[in-house]
Amino acid sequence: MGDKPTPRPTDAELAILNVLWERGPSTVREVHDALSPTHDSGYTTVLKLMQIMTDKGLVDRDERQRAHVYTSRLGEQRTQRQLLGDLIERAFGGSPAKLVMQALSTTKATAEDLSAIRHMLDQMEEEAR
After folding, report:
1. What DSSP state is assigned to residue 37?
2. Which of 17, 24, 56, 64 is surrounded by the fewest CB atoms within 10 Å?
3. What is the pLDDT of residues 99-111, one digit of tens each?
4. Distance from C-alpha of 11 to C-alpha of 41, rounded to nearest angstrom
5. Residues 6+ apart with CB under 8 A from 70
6. Cβ–Cβ contacts within 10 Å for residue 53, how many?
7. With contact defined as beta carbons under 8 Å apart, do 64 and 51 qualify?
8. Helices (H), the chain
9. CA distance 16 to 20
10. From CA 52, how far away is CA 75, in angstroms rounded?
C-alpha cells in the first residue's frame, strides 16, 4: 500500500484540525461552535470544508450515527512536521538553521523557551555521537 503524501491543509482546514486535535472526535456542530468565537464561518461553510477534508484524506468521517463524527486522520505533531518541512524547503532553502535563526530573531524567546531549545540541542548532539 503506497503512502501518498497528505495534502497540505489550508488555513481554514488547519483551524478545524486544531479543534479536532484539542477535542477529539467531533460533529460538525461541535467544530462550528468551537470555531465561532474566533472565526466568522457559518455552519454550512464548516460542513462543506469538513466534507472536502474527508475527500482530501485529512479527516475520517464516522457515519454510524445520525450526526456524523469526524476525526483527524493524522496527528498534530505529524501535520506540524509536514508543514514545517515544506516551509523549510520553500522559504529557507532546506536549512533548519536559517528557520531557527529567523524564528528567534522575529519573536522574543522566553527563558523557558531557550532552556528547552538548549536541552533539545544537547540531546541531538548526544545522539549524533
Report:
1. T
2. 64
3. 989 988 898 889 9
4. 13
5. 20, 25, 26, 27, 28, 31, 50, 53, 54, 59, 60, 61, 62
6. 24
7. no
8. 11-23, 28-35, 43-56, 76-92, 96-106, 111-128
9. 6
10. 18
> Contact, 53 vs 16, CB < 8 A?
yes
CB within 8 A of 84, min separation 6: which ones?
A: 99
> What's the one-letter identity of residue 27?
T
Which grid cell sits at 114? 531557550
Sign of the C-alpha dihedral computed for residues 23, 28, 31 and 33 taken in this order: negative
How many residues appear in the chain?
Answer: 129
Rounded Cα gap, residues 118 and 91, in angstroms: 24
Q: What residue type is assigned to position 11 of the chain?
A: D
pLDDT confidence tier of residue 40, bands split at 50, 70 and 90: confident
Return the SS3 of 122.
helix
Cell of 123: 540531546
AA letter at 8: R
Query: Phi and psi dihedrals of 27, rounded to 5?
Result: -85, 170
Please, are residues 35 and 45 in contact by the beta-carbon 8 Å criterion?
Answer: no
In angstroms and rounded to an integer, the radius of gyration of the C-alpha atoms of the chain is: 18
Q: Is the pTM of this model over 0.90?
A: no
